[in-house]
Amino acid sequence: MAKKLPPVDVVLVGFGWTGAIMAQELTEAGLQVLALERGGWRDTPTHFPTTVAPDELRFYWRHEMFQDTARETLTFRNNDSQTALPMRRWGSFLPGSGVGGSGVHWNGQTFRFLPSDFVAASHNTDRYGPLPEGMTVQDYGVTYDELETHFDRFEKLCGIGGKAGNLRGALQAGGNPFEGRRSDDYPNPPMEMTFAQKQFGMAARELGLNPFPAPSANMSRPYTNPLGVQLAPCTYCGFCEKYGCGNYSKAIPQTTILPVLMGKHNFTLKTHNEVLEITRDSSGRRATGVTHVDVHGEVFEQPAEIVILCAYPLQNARLMMLSGIGRTYDPRSGEGLVGKNYCYQVVSSVDVFYEDRYTNQFVGAGALGMVIDEYNGDNFDHAGLGFIGGGYLACWTTNARPIETHRTPEGTPEWGAGWKKAVKENFLKSTGVSTHGASMAYAQNRLDLDPTYTDVYGRPLLRMTYDFTPNDRAMTAYLTERATEIAKRMGGREIKVNAREGAYDSMPYQTTHNTGGTIMGSTPANSVVNRYLQSWDVPNLFVMGAGVFPQNAGYNPTGTVAALTYWAAEAIKSRYLPDPGPMVRA
Amino acid sequence: MRKSASFLVAGSALLGAVEAARANDFAAVERGRYLTQAGNCQGCHTPAGEEPFAGSRPLETPFGVIYTPNITFDTETGLGRWTKDDFWRAMHEGKAKDGSQLYPAFPYPHFTKMPREDVDAIYAYLATLEPVRKKRPENELPFPLNWRFTVKGWNMTFFEPGVFRPDPEKSQAWNRGAYLVEGPGHCSGCHTEKNLLGADKKGRHLAGGRLENWSAPDIRAGRHGGLEKWSEEEIVEFLRTGRNAHSAAFSIMSEVISYSTQHMAEADLKAIATYLKDLTGEERAAPRKPADAVMTAGAAIYLDNCTACHVSDGSGVPRFFPPLAGSGKVNNPDPTTVIRVLLEGARAVPTKTHPSPLTMPAFGWKLDDDEIAAVATYVRSSWGNSGGAVEADEVRKLRGLLAEGPP
Ligand SMILES: Cc1cc2nc3c(=O)[nH]c(=O)nc-3n(C[C@H](O)[C@H](O)[C@H](O)COP(=O)(O)OP(=O)(O)OC[C@H]3O[C@@H](n4cnc5c(N)ncnc54)[C@H](O)[C@@H]3O)c2cc1C
């Protein structure tokens, strides 16, 4: 028998980026908020101080920050003809565990989606005609304009450094001319650029493109956010992605919200407590709370008035399935919605090698880069191209790490003395142009529960069925060609094209931008949650995170994930609390 | 009708009197609360994470360990049976209810400067706190100090009871500042060097002290004082927010700021600044120049380990990571704090205005005694600093003391 605990107003499942934002917003509204986090407590000086932060073995190769696959992982297959097998070691993406979630070891590239991304289905149909067979792209049900102030709040919370391209409708030289209208500039200036970005900028301008500095959550100067929390200037040490920042220079929940939140009397955090299930009353229409298990295996029943899933898209979808809320999507019948429209990110790159110019890539930061947006979203005419959507092209200098980094030219042997020589010769003299492409939803890509493999508690693992789609392949080929054009003009000795071809491979790292599975939309017939991220089936259940994206855009997700979280929090405070119940009538 | 009307009038007059008395009470309690904060009573009377004011925090004195008493009004273990007069005698004369002498770890030599109405107000405030039953452990004092009457002799030599008397030559702000610093604030408890008997050393008033393996800096802010470079505004900022352009508070001062000064009225903080700005120090002889080899090693260690926050020229990131160039703590002739911060790290005090507990990591596990000494020497002898060299032996000794741990 599970021990029943005293009720709370709100229980948050997971305490990463979305959990921290929600907790801060709802405690401000006076609610009693409890966050349950499966991993441990983490803070900068204890867990990733400068003295240990850049430890490649510990943090990357031994995965100290990531979900423990020995306890729980997911199974993977490319398509229905295969049998999914458990991912026993993370590769393509790296879900976090512990306070701050993946928000601790993210890079900090903090974009806003384009206005047209939120209406991908209607916009593209209007312009290019019906979507191809099997493509299940749909509108978000919320618009860029509705989210604008929420984007702005997140940028100010994080101290994003960048250059506005569209300030209240007026185009700004040096910014992204394609971005949606902004109510305000970024709170901080862009980061300092290195030689590589200068070469990229020059090449892009020669081609008539508009390079702009990437919006960065790595601080370009000392910053105190609206909550009074302090972020220190980035030292360009190059240990952002896959690492915690020892210098308080990367916006993470710990450096933006937690110092204020943790002191509040109406907030409680329980670490090392994994949520097992969302419980419901006999009508099935009302969540009564959650059950969770501590490290000793003791199970608790936590009653709550509101349940909010903040457990990252993959876990959010799995918890819905394990709790039997909504029907799991079945591509054969087309019925069910939970697990539908799983999407990812389609990336490729072109390396540039210099003969006698030093790029010194070890002087880097997670979001240090120059970007062009001419080939993103619907910023260009797709007529005759055979795909919709696109992506940004960028020259990043995120890092060069002693173990991980080994860019080598075409024709280099894969190992041995020749490989070592090439690594040595090129370590300080290379850079690249990367493409960061959208991922459009197709009927066969999805998440469901694995029929065979279970987690440490004997519950089915999540199963991922995913491969690149015809749209993805045409898009990435196009983007890679554009990247090649730029790379060729960057003044290097030679280039090497790393196109994204063949089946999706779950091992090489690509991005931790898993989206879909709990998608949002306009009716209960096309979505799991409504435009306020409220479950259609269980109105006191809310689902945060990129799982609500009906399909993924050509940007990193977190700016939009955070804006949606603020948007949902606002709706809970101003509409749901005064009148609890469905905020959109079906 | 008339009758009842007049009755009503009388009734409300009566009510008014009661209310006024209550309001008076309220004013006294509020005043008491303010003074209790100004004196940071909570600091010593609360072990970390335990019930506020219920005592039992071990105070490490050079003579042994003294446990602070419970000052909630519990009848068995606290002040429950104390009268206002008992409390006044403790604060003013250093005598317990039973007439026995209190140890001067309780800063009655400072509290004696407080007038009766201030002391009564503190009593009124403490009486409003939820009483906590908590007995304190026996003090760990060696013979003959465990004989409380030895304190009598101490008192005859070092203690003069008497309420603060303003200096008519000085401004009102100066006098208020002097009262707060010397009276309730008892700053010299940490910031004045003690003689062998634990009393303030003559002529060293607020010129820096040493306690619990920390060196408290010189806080005189006039010419040649440790805080000479701090403006009045910067002193106020430090006490209000825990940070300013020169420094950040940590360790014991962080308690003072979080329980006490951050809650104080702006005018009182200004008054403290006015007073400190009027305290002058004395010129210091330049220390011996450290060996070149040590400076070279120190510079290399500094570059690898410290520049990310403190910047290669020691300028730091003001209000985030304290500058080392010109720092009072770094230039303190007593290097204890510098060595200790290198060994253990330090956490800037989170305050209402600056909630971030920005923290320097420990280097004790990463750098050996020679390396710590070299980098400390480098920092104390660069960018205009003149703190002087640190020897590996000093590092080794401090490591030993810290390894013994708190009592
Ligand atoms: C290496 C890396 C680099 C990235 N770089 C970028 C970038 O540059 N730009 C960008 O926009 N995005 C980036 N991201 C993505 C970004 O980190 C995520 O979008 C963001 O953290 C998502 O927030 P979330 O709250 O949904 O999930 P998370 O922040 O991951 O938080 C989820 C939390 O829920 C907890 N949890 C899960 N299941 C349970 C359960 N059953 N019970 C209790 N707790 C549970 C987890 O332990 C975790 O702490 C990156 C991610 C990674 C891993």
From TrEMBL, chain A:
One of its GO terms (molecular function) is oxidoreductase activity, acting on CH-OH group of donors. Residues 443-564 form the Glucose-methanol-choline oxidoreductase C-terminal domain. The keyword Transport does not apply. InterPro entries: FAD/NAD-bd_sf, GMC_OxRdtase_N, GMC_OxRtase_C. It comes from the Bacteria. Belongs to the GMC oxidoreductase family. This is Gluconate 2-dehydrogenase alpha chain. SUPFAM superfamilies: FAD-linked reductases, C-terminal domain (SSF54373), FAD/NAD(P)-binding domain (SSF51905). Pfam families: GMC_oxred_C, GMC_oxred_N. Keywords: FAD, Flavoprotein, Oxidoreductase. Residues 233-345 form the Glucose-methanol-choline oxidoreductase N-terminal domain.
TrEMBL record, chain B:
Heme c 1 binds at C41, C44, H45. Keywords: Cell membrane, Electron transport, Heme, Iron, Membrane, Metal-binding, Repeat, Respiratory chain, Signal, Transport. One of its GO terms (molecular function) is iron ion binding. It comes from the Bacteria. The keyword Ribosomal protein does not apply. Residues 27-130, 172-280, 293-383 form the Cytochrome c domain. Heme c 2 binds at C187, C190, H191. This is Mono/diheme cytochrome c family protein. It comes from Shinella granuli.
